[in-house]
Specification:
This protein is α+β, with helices and mostly antiparallel strands and 265 residues long. Helix content is 51%, strand content 21%. Strand 7 and strand 8 form a beta hairpin. It is elongated.
Length: 265
Amino acid sequence: MISEGFKELFEYFTSKAFLMSTLIVVIAMLDFYLIKQYLIKKVAYTGKEDQHRNTFLGVFFNVLQYVVGVVAAVLIMKFHGINVAGIFTGLGIAATIVGLALQDSLKDIIAGLNIYNHNFYKVGDLVRYNGEECDVKYFSTKVTKFQSILTKATYTVNNSEIRSIEKIKDGHIQHFLFNFSTERAKVDDCFNRVCERMKAECPHLKEIHYESIADIDDRGVTYEIKYVCPAHKREEVKDMMMSITYDEMVARGIEPYTDELLVMH
């Protein structure tokens, strides 16, 4: 009895159907790997290209693995003599059963496609999720991975669970409050120089403009600088601007009300 069982196993593992099935699986995995590596190398975001590409790649790889899996499964069934046409004939009932079993996954996929089609966010964007500023590190049709800017913790969230999210824009405003006795000419000269240095020294800066006086109230005079940079680089750009501003203020003997320093988006 045991020898007969081993004989049947040996015959199966050496059969054409098994060998071809193994070959199909290996080829499918190899093709998926080579396509993935090629696209990552040729298309993936490098820092100079559109970040939308990385978001597209996440969706594409997610769909590609299902397509490759289905094609491989159909070929394997054909080599095993299974009537594939007959299976597809009864697909209506099977689809209903599978749909009920995988309804949560289907919700995630539909939500993911909706996020992608409407460009709610993309890989590399800075968003506010659950009250916390996060960098979008990965996106597919099923899940999104966020990384907290503050704690660096990573959150993996099913797309169907994302009810609302705020995309933080690239434009920022920096306010500086000075008392009435500060000479405007010195302030103008200081911030014009800050803008010149930021343009020359900050690689992440897209635009920067000194807008002069933004407001006057009983506290003093508020001056304003507007700048544009990638949202996830905002803190790095701001720190650099504060350092340069400090040097230029010291050089001119002026100082702001530091406790009134404001950052507004």
